[in-house]
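Attaching the record inline, Q. Sequence:
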Amino acid sequence: MSALLRSELRKFFTTRLWWVLLIALGVYMGGTAMLLAFAFTSTDATGQGAPASFDDPAALVTAVYGTANSLGYVFPVIIGALAVTSELRHHTLTPTYLATPARTRVLGAKLVSSLPLGLLYGIVGTAVSVGGGAAMLALRGHATFLTDPAVLESVGRSVLGLTIWILVGVGVGALVRNQVVAIVVVLVYTQLVEPILRSVLVSTPVARYLPGAAGDAIVGSSVYSAAGLGSLLPWWAGALLLAGYGLAAAGIASATTLRGDVA
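Structure, as predicted:
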């Protein structure tokens, strides 16, 4: 199994796409965190500050620092999905299956080997969110809470959340198989479907169990929850639920699409 894990880990880093997406994540999340910090600390014509839900400064800061986890999780999901779909597209999965006929074992190795890359995305995404957000908060004359234990804990959990998201991507890629379709599904769901669902289901407990809401729960706050779009689960429940989504998708793929022929 160790040889298989090493092989799968090398596959992640032998293409340029992982660092291209990593740079995109950094630029996007750094800029977004700065914009959110600016918006949340702006005042209107009456002199009032950010929305009432941000009356708690620590909650505001936590939401800003968790930007990558609440808005940028699409990046680790895509790179995870491509771990499977790229091999199917370029027909490199065939020799892998010839060397290791147990396809579930191969998928398990992809899940495990994806975690270091997910951790890297988590560290970079969270670091630029904190850096950009803290810089803007300081420029606006607001406390950054960078020495607050609770805020620092939420920052660490943001890294955890983004790491778990890559498991969801691997599961989705194994389930969908087609690279273009997988990317479209990920983008449409994360950028359109879930935001709409969380708005529509805001008054029901169902919203807390959506994948994005589970990811937000890991941090403990987000632009969605702080804006009143539903409550969140405890952080540990969100982590277990999000990991469960990824493992469930992988399990379904193992029983269905993974058994299909490899072109």
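The CA atoms of residues 78 and 220 lie 24 Å apart. The mean pLDDT is 86.

More tomorrow.
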